[in-house]
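Progress report, Aim 2. The chain analyzed during this reporting quarter is listed below.
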Amino acid sequence: MYNQDKPAFPYVKTVEKDTLSQETAQGLTKREYLAALAMQGILSSHFDNTLTPETVADYATHCADGLLDALNKY
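Predicted C-alpha cells for the chain:
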C-alpha cells in the first residue's frame, strides 16, 4: 500500500466471524484529505466564475500529490 492510499485518520475495526477476525481501516486516504484541504484554500482565496470544478479538483490533487512526493523523500 502506497503512503497516499493509507488512511489520514485511521480507525481500525476488528470484526470476528466464526473465529476469524478481519481488520478494516476506514476514512479518507491521505491523498483525499490533502486534496480537500488544498481545494478549500483555492476556493477561499481565488473564487471567481472562471474556475470550473474540474480545474479546482485537478489543481488540488496536483498539490496533494506534490506534498506526498516531498514527504516520501524523508
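The radius of gyration is 17 Å. The chain has a mean pLDDT of 84. These observations will guide the mutagenesis work planned for the next reporting period.
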